[in-house]
Amino acid sequence: MRNTVYLDYAATTPLDPRVRDSMLECMDAAHGFGNPSSTTHSYGLQAAQHIENAASAAAELLNAEPAEIIWTSGATESNNLALIGAARFRAMHGRHIVTTAIEHKSVLESCRWLETQGYEVSYVEPDEMGIVAPAAIADALRPDTSLVSVMHANNETGVVQDIAAIGALCRAREVIFHVDAAQSLGKLPLDVQAQQIDMLSVNAHKACGPKGVGALYLNADRIRRVDPLLHGGGQQRGIRPGTLAVHQIVGMGASLRILREEMADEVLRVQALRDRLWAGIRHIDGVLLNGDPARRICSILNVSVVGLEGESLRFALTDLAISGGSACNSASGEPSYVLRSLGRNPQLAEASVRFSLGRFSTETDVDHAVSRFTAAVELLRSLLPVASRA
Q1: Do 209 and 318 share a structural domain?
Q2: Phi and psi at residue 313, to the nearest 5°
Q3: What 3-state DSSP class applies to 149?
């Protein structure tokens, strides 16, 4: 692993040393290890203050209020809580949900579970560039639609949706709007007021924070609560009960403060690395870019290779930590459903590689990836029968 170049930031990110230090300090006996619900003594009060500080950091980044932040174990739980919780809480407003065919599995599987409970779900398809037209969302709305869920930036292609436009049409129709922002956090501006977002899911481990912690923003005016998935304890107004993991939340708060301070410069740096990578491999015969070339986040580059077998390609790149698609979908062995929705045939969907860069990526990493990818494609092509190379 020491010689493996890490280019899988869309799956997870290294822990920033500054975040680690904040967590270690919190875990010390003198610095807030207490239960934040135990407000009758100084240990609990100090822990509660840590939670409040982290909520303030999240609220500042999202243009929200600290009281609108619900702590979870990550974006998967946040997505489940948002969709299932809001659908059940608002069932009297209608039992129809609109989402897209290229959402994260935590959204799609939540919707499929709701379908078993008597809800109807419309899955809007993207165009060949991976863009979901706001007009297509509008066309899917019905009088009984209670909830729309659209991912901000796709976790496989990085393609960005027009969240503000979708938010505006949902607000005009009095439909609750949920956004999965796990990939766009720290890479795109997030303003829940300007973008008219009612619920928003984020996590820490995609932003150089710790695993096991995330947050769900709930608009206090539009949707003050959702039905809980868990019961007992009454913490967080009963929406997500359970003793809060103070050190993880402190780590997430630290990661969000770093994002707020450094995002503008970091986005430009990472985008330059992504463009350097694409410039190095785009001229290889048969390499195709997946997704819109302009409307995508700075960190993800997803390509397919004509005529090659995907497993062989990834085996030839074992010194690069990369992905064949979503980390949550890689165990299935099936071609990417996201790329299939964009119209890629099974071979191209299966022979895809997702490079994703981040805070600790360097030009040296990128140049090594260009060299190794080029060599791997040339080697595999040389092993093909002559007729297959034509």
Answers
A1: no
A2: -65, -45
A3: strand
Residue 388 lies inside a defined structural domain of this protein: no
Do both 176 and 279 map to the same domain?
no
Helical pair 246-281 and 363-382, crossing angle rounded to 10 deg: 60
- Per DSSP, helices labelled H in 72-133 are 75-89, 105-116
pLDDT in tens, 265-276: 999 999 999 999
Kindly write down the DSSP assignment for every residue of 150-161, as one continuous string. Answer: EESB-TTT-BBP
Q: Is residue 390 part of a domain?
A: no
pLDDT at 111 over 60: yes
Task: Please report the pLDDT score of residue 388 as a whole number.
Answer: 56
Judgement on whether residues 215 and 300 belong to the same structural domain of the protein: no
Classify residue 176 by its DSSP letter.
E
Instruction: Report CA Rg, the chain.
Output: 22
- The DSSP annotation for 190-237 comes to --TTTTT-SEEEEESTTTTS-TT-EEEEE-TTT------SS-SS-GGG
Q: Catalytic annotation on 328? A: yes
Is residue 279 over pLDDT 70? yes
Active-site hit among 26, 111, 208, 328: 328
96 contact partners, CB below 8 Å, separation of at least 6: 119, 120, 121, 122, 142, 144, 145, 146
Query: pLDDT tens for residues 37-55?
Result: 998 999 999 999 999 999 9
Give the pLDDT of residue 45. Answer: 92
Say what the pLDDT of residue 387 is.
Answer: 46
CA distances, 347 to each of 310, 328, 344 (Å): 8, 20, 8
Contacts of 8 (CB under 8 A, 6+ apart): 321, 322, 323, 327, 354, 356
Q: How many CA atoms are closer than 13 Å to the CA of 248, on its beta-carbon side?
A: 16
Q: Which of 213, 238, 258 is the last residue of a domain?
A: 258
In a domain, 32, yes or no: yes
CATH no. for residue 297? 3.90.1150.10
CATH number at residue 106: 3.40.640.10
Residue ending a domain, choose from 209, 243, 258:
258
